[in-house]
Every structure is written in C-alpha cells, then in structure tokens.
Amino acid sequence: MFSKLIKCLFSIRFWSYVVKMLLNLYDRSFGSIPKLGAYNDAVIDVTTSFRNPNNIYLNTKVTIGEECRLWASENAKIIIGKSAILGPNVFITSMNHGIEKNTVIRDQNFIERDVIINEDCWIGSQSIILPGVTLGKGTVVAAGAVVTKSTEPYSIVAGVPAKVISYRL
Ligand SMILES: CC(C)(COP(=O)(O)OP(=O)(O)OC[C@H]1O[C@@H](n2cnc3c(N)ncnc32)[C@H](O)[C@@H]1OP(=O)(O)O)[C@@H](O)C(=O)NCCC(=O)NCCS
C-alpha cells in the first residue's frame, strides 16, 4: 500500500491529473463556468472542460462524468436539458472548421450550429455529438456513438454514424 502511494507520487499521470484539477478549480473560481439553470444543482466532474462557457447552459439535475469536453463556440450554444446524464469522455461541439478546397482550413470561417440535448437524455461514454444536433427528449446514445443527425424522442441510437437501434419502452 505504502509503496503504491510512493509510486503514484512519482508518476506523470498522477501529477497531470492534479494540474488539470487545479486548472479547472481556478477556472471555476474565476468565472469560466457555464450558465447554470435556476436551481444551480448540476453535478459536474472536476475534470470536465468547457470552451466558451458563456454559451453553455446547464439545466437542473444535469450530471457530467469524468473527462467530458463541452466545446461551445462564439456564436453557437450548447444547451443541456433537465436531468440529462453525460457518461465519461463525452465530447460535444457546436463548431466545425470550414473545409472548402481552395483555402487552407485554418483560414476559413467556422461553421457554428447550436447543439440541444433535451430533458432526460443519457449520453453513453466516449460518444461524440456534432454541431446542429438536437437530441429529442429521453434519447439514449449508446457508448461510442457519433451523433451526426437529430434524434427522435425516446430513441436509442448507436454506432458511427449513430442510427436508431430501438426505442425506450
Ligand atoms: C445503449 C445501451 C444502453 C443499450 O443497452 P441494452 O438495451 O441492454 O442493449 P443490448 O445490450 O441488448 O443491445 C441491443 C443491440 O444494440 C447493440 N449495441 C448495444 N450497445 C451498443 C453500442 N454501444 N454501440 C453499438 N451497438 C450497440 C447490441 O450489439 C445489440 O445488437 P444486436 O441486437 O444486433 O445483437 C448500452 O449498450 C450502452 O451503450 N450503454 C452505455 C454505457 C455507458 O456509457 N455507461 C456510462 C455510465 S453513465
């Protein structure tokens, strides 16, 4: 037990985790967190990272697991509805790079579209939700899915790109 602790103190993984946690705590203390809904009771793991948090809205009873990344952009929002659950390592973005052929990608304007996760959705671990997607109320996104299109209420979607595999009963 003691030797494990010593080993841990010398591991890069441990210290990178500590630094990440401190940076996130710093962000939270100085205002770089999303807008919280009326009840301010979202449970957000300390390892979650946010971009443009002024464009991220979390409603009541939202839960966000370890290592999620919510990347809103300057002109498009990410809205997470009441009681939604994000498993670990979920990535949500409201921004694509432009990809026209005759200009280098980094010089093109972003293409920005709101992402809306409605009430009671559950997004499984390692899933990706792309710009412009609206998850209908109660959608389940299976682990590892890439959601490119909006979903119907109470559908269960899986795969890359995500397709309906069934509906909640
Ligand atoms: C989506 C999910 C809830 C479905 O669970 P389920 O209703 O018990 O589904 P089953 O295991 O009976 O699978 C039904 C079908 O969907 C497929 N499937 C299930 N999960 C899948 C996934 N993540 N990706 C692709 N296909 C999947 C199964 O292979 C099966 O296909 P088949 O009918 O051709 O055999 C579950 O598989 C899942 O992905 N959970 C997420 C777990 C997670 O991220 N937890 C973190 C805690 S927040």
From TrEMBL:
<dbReference type="Pfam" id="PF00132">
    <property type="entry name" value="Hexapep"/>
</dbReference>
<dbReference type="InterPro" id="IPR001451">
    <property type="entry name" value="Hexapep"/>
</dbReference>
<dbReference type="GO" id="GO:0008374">
    <property type="term" value="F:O-acyltransferase activity"/>
</dbReference>
<protein>
    <recommendedName>
        <fullName>Acetyltransferase</fullName>
    </recommendedName>
</protein>
<dbReference type="InterPro" id="IPR011004">
    <property type="entry name" value="Trimer_LpxA-like_sf"/>
</dbReference>
<comment type="similarity">
    <text>Belongs to the transferase hexapeptide repeat family.</text>
</comment>
<dbReference type="GO" id="GO:0005829">
    <property type="term" value="C:cytosol"/>
</dbReference>
<dbReference type="InterPro" id="IPR051159">
    <property type="entry name" value="Hexapeptide_acetyltransf"/>
</dbReference>
<keyword id="KW-0808">Transferase</keyword>
